Every structure is written in C-alpha cells, then in structure tokens.
Amino acid sequence: MNVWDLFVAIVLGIVEGLTEFAPVSSTGHMILVDDMMLHSKELFPASVANSFKVVIQLGSILAVLVVFRSRFIDLLGLSRRKGTGTVRGPRLKLMQVIVGLIPAGIIGVLFEDYIDEYLFSVETVLIGLVLGGVLMIVADKLRPRTPAADTVDKITYKQALGVGLFQCLGMWPGFSRSGSTISGGVLLGMSHRAASDFTFIMAVPIMAGASLISLAKHWDAFTPEALPFFIAGFISAFVFALVSIRFFLKLIQRIKLVPFAIYRFVLAALIYIFWF
C-alpha cells in the first residue's frame, strides 16, 4: 500500500461523503472520478474494490447517526425525556420508518442479482441521472403550495409508504435514492426539510443492512495490506458526509430541488463526453 493508493482512497471517500445523501447520484460521481481520473479498478483486485465501496458507505452511515443521534435515540424509545411530564406533540414513530422501508426491501430481495448484473453500466447511470433530474423538477413544480407535513414529525403512514415506493426508483443506478425519496416526499405533501430528514433516517437501516451483507460476502478482502486503504476511505467518507449532511439540510430549504436537477444534467453531459 503506497501513498498513491491512500490518495485514491481519500478522494473516493470524499466523493462518497459529499454525494451519498445529496440528490445528485453518488454512483454517477464515482464513475466520473474513479473511471475517468483515478482508474482504481486497475489498481486493486475486484474483491478489494467491492469491499471498499461498502466501507466508505459505512462511513457515510455513521455520519447520519451522528447528525440524527437524538432522533434515533427517540425512535428506539431510549429518550430520557420520557416520563418527565412534559407534553409532547406528534413524533415520528419507528413503525413509520419501517413502513417506508418495506417496498424497497421487497424489491431488493427479489431483484438484487438482476440489478447488479444488468443495470450497473454507464448507459443506465446516464438514463438515471436524466430521469431523476426530470422527477426533481416535476416535484418542485407540482408540489402543494402549503405542505401538509412541514416537519418530519407530521408525516403520516400513507406518506411514509408513498416515499418508500418512490425509494424503489433509487435502485436504478444514477437515479439517486435520496433524489427519489425527497422528490416523492415533496409531491406527497412534505416540506423539503421534512422529506430530507425522513430520507436520511430511512437510509441508515437499509444501507447498513445491505453493507453488512456485502461485507460478509467479501470478508476475505480485509487483509493487513488493504486495511490502511479501507481506513483512509472510511475516515474521509465520514468527515465529508458529516459536513455535507449539515450543509445540505440548510441548503435544501432555500434552493429546493431544481438546481440539483440542473447539476445532474451537467454531470450526465460530462460522463457522456469523457466516457464516449
């Protein structure tokens, strides 16, 4: 493991951290940075490359847990505020999160192998980037003028299920899971901030579950020689995801979704130019 390997790990971790939870497609960015600039597939065996993607995703997941730590404590019923006699308004319930996870969970179990084998290509990512951008523009144009759920605590079970259905679109590479769910939430009457909060909260169990399954499959890649590579990527993904999430939650309330859609179109054009 040399200095260049560590540089590649840090750069890819930065890309993961900055793009995983923004509605811009982390997959599209990975293609542009990895295949066009770093060519890490030529540097490392496939097992190491696959495991590395899982490791940096875990770094991003940890960042969500840090930002929303009080919310997860509350969802798990571990909040110390209970029993204090304080009157509390409606709160997001764990069952609502579970309802939101069910559609993508079912699709993932049934079609995971098909998605991995047939949908991970530059062409499908380009399609996902463009169509996802169109969805985001439509969501901003057709959203209710006054959202029914201006905070995540006012989300209904029907809205949670609807967002879960939109999340299935994110299984198409390039479509962006967060882009799909935030757009769906806005169309279903959530504020941009409420839809974003719900998206991040749902991301933890679904990404953690998928990552742990993948780790079990590629555990043999965690050799002493590869550990510095994994550690560097994990730390950079965690740090930049932490910054990205906090910044995005403030930004989305001001600029909405259309600017992100335009950015996606530009990214698609760059991938097309450099790849083809």
UniProtKB/TrEMBL annotation:
Name the enzyme's class: hydrolase
User: What parts of the sequence cross the membrane?
Assistant: 51-73, 94-112, 118-139, 198-215, 227-245, 257-275
The EC number on file is: 3.6.1.27
Can you cite a GO biological process for this protein? peptidoglycan biosynthetic process
GO MF annotation, one: undecaprenyl-diphosphatase activity
Q: Which reaction does it catalyse?
A: di-trans,octa-cis-undecaprenyl diphosphate + H2O = di-trans,octa-cis-undecaprenyl phosphate + phosphate + H(+)
Q: Where in the cell is it found?
A: Cell membrane
Keyword Transmembrane found: yes
Q: What does this protein do?
A: Catalyzes the dephosphorylation of undecaprenyl diphosphate (UPP). Confers resistance to bacitracin.
Family label: Belongs to the UppP family.
* Name of this protein: Undecaprenyl-diphosphatase
From what organism does this protein derive? Paenibacillus flagellatus
